[in-house]
Amino acid sequence: NYLNERIGELKIAGFDIEILLLDHHISGQECADKYEWYHLDALRSASKITFDTLFQSYPLLDSTRLNWISHLSSMINSVDIWLEDGYKFDFGKVAMGAISGSFELNRFMFDKEHRDYKFAIIESMRDFIELPQGEVAFDNALYEIKKRILGGDPQNQTMDTIISNAQVKLLSTKKRLCTIYYDDKKGFLSYSMGGISILANLFLRCNPEYDFYLDVNPRGNISLRANGNCDVSAMSRELFNGGGHKNASGGKIEGFKESFAYDDIKTQIEYILNKHKEAL
Asked: Which of 86, 156, 194, 249 is most buried (CB neighbours < 10 A)?
């Protein structure tokens, strides 16, 4: 109602403005019946509806991509609304798994890069979608495709090595944002990276100005790694009710508040660090 009224006011005021809402969820039927700008089509996926609608109104900047994007939207449509006899349904199943399983770049720490990575995987499908049994060829090639997108050498590097190198390279660009301090020790804070043993040790080796690496997950569990210059076992015991080894420890933040925003996480960690500093 607010949108409808506001658009009406702007039109009266002389603004050239239209509103169009695209939906494929049947739960929107009541609104679709009420407003002419609410376009509901439960027989097509959101991707297909969006492509078809935009293509009717705007030309593609690169016309050579028309067939590819059209085929892509049709393939997504088949698997999204589960049309087993639809266009490239089997390819769609592989494609859906490729995207849902693309967790190599953390979306909390690498928001843009995470999306770019997935778009690059989608773009790689272009070479396979029209092949006979293209879904099999793409499925077989996917691991190597991911390695190449992440900047690795598929024939000479393991995926763990490639992922760690890519993550450390990206993390190293965020030093100004992610630096924290524990007494006179300099640390790097990441959020929800998980399984940091290889990553943290590589990061500390590549960035020797840092004394420790701290990662916190959405449940408030803490993972700490050091390079010999900081006793993270003592740190974990003092701050996070945890413990472990001098160079590898863990703990937990009681009352931790999960967030999608890195700044919220850093604020909570710095509050704990500052509280410790004040108590000294």
From this structure: 249
